[in-house]
Amino acid sequence: MHSLNSALDRLRSHLPVYIEDVQQKLSKIETLRAACNYITAMSEILATDIPVDPQQFHKQLSIGLSQNTRNMIAKALNLKHLVSNLSTLYRKTYLLTLTQTLYEIKLQFTLSVLITLFTCFLLGRLFTQALSLVKHSEKMDEQNLE
After folding, report:
1. Taking the mean position of all CA atoms in its chain, how far away is CA 130?
2. I need a surface site. Which of 28, 52, 90, 112 has the fewest CB within 10 A?
3. Does the keyword field hold Acyltransferase (predicted)?
């Protein structure tokens, strides 16, 4: 779980919402939604190579997010003027890094789910074996009593 949290922290640092002096960080689901929105917005920018309208960019980044997160995005965009100043090469590199981080989170999440399922499977097997040992022990006790 620690590796998932550290991966999410790395992902947060790549989002335009990330402001170091802000005490509150995005929740896991808000981080993933913001990252998906950001990848979509950056992909559209790369596809069209047209200068970005900050209001439209803010609208794209805010889809499905809470009002608090929208406010953080607006603040971050006002502080950084992020997209309009990026070169095309830098945008592609940034998008690739963000996509790779999302993939790593997905992989870590999948691995933790698989580990949990495997643990549940092993516990089920242990429980079944313990139950059969108890039944076997009860039969042995009945035979000894006779």
Report:
1. 38
2. 90
3. no
Helix (DSSP H) and strand (DSSP E) numbers for the chain:
5, 0
pTM score over 0.85:
no
| Residue in this structure with the two tokens 């100043």, named with its chain if needed | 85
Residue with tokens 């035979």: 143
Q: Is residue 26 a contact partner of residue 34, using CB atoms and an 8 Å limit?
A: yes
Q: Which amino acid is residue 122, in one-letter code?
A: L
d(CA 26, CA 71): 12
List the Cα angle 70/73/77 in 5-degree steps: 145
- In the DSSP assignment, the letter for residue 105 is H
Instruction: Give me 78's structure tokens.
Output: 């006002």
Q: What is the pLDDT along the chain (146 residues), one digit of tens a residue?
A: 568 888 888 888 777 766 555 557 788 888 888 888 888 888 887 778 777 777 788 888 888 988 888 887 777 776 555 445 545 556 667 777 777 777 777 777 777 777 777 787 777 888 888 888 888 888 887 777 76
Structural domain boundaries enclosing 34: 2-145
Using an 8 Å Cβ cutoff, are 132 and 125 in contact? Answer: no
Sign of the Cα torsion 101, 82, 24, 55 reads negative
